[in-house]
Amino acid sequence: MDIGSIASLATNMAQERTQQEVSMAVLKKALDTEASNAMALIDAIPPAQSNLPANLGQNINVTA
User: Fold this and answer.
1) Which of 37, 51, 54, 56, CA to CA, is 20 to 30 A from 19?
2) C-alpha to C-alpha distance for 38 and 41, rounded to whole angstroms
3) How much is the pLDDT for 32?
């Protein structure tokens, strides 16, 4: 191998590593965005209102 091919190989490896780092950064940003969107959807859900009388929904019949 001559000096030129070694330098070219080193440059290509550095560029590939940089591309991988950029791809990982974009992936992490996308995951963070999706997580914040999911949390916004969860927070937008109104609390459940209980329309049952006080005596219903308190016991479970396990002998049926």
Assistant:
1) 37
2) 5
3) 98
SS3 content of the chain, % helix, strand, coil (to 5): 65, 0, 35
DSSP characters for 18-40? HHHHHHHHHHHHHHHHHHHHHHH
In angstroms, rounded to a whole number, what is the distance separating the alpha carbons of residues 60 and 55?
12
Show me where the domains of the chain are located.
1-44
Please write the tens of the pLDDT for every residue from 31-56: 999 999 999 999 999 987 778 787 77
Q: Which sign does the torsion angle of CA 46, 47, 53, 58 carry?
A: positive
Tell me how crowded residue 52 is: count the other CB atoms within 10 A of its CB: 9
Q: Which residue has the tokens 């937008």?
A: 44
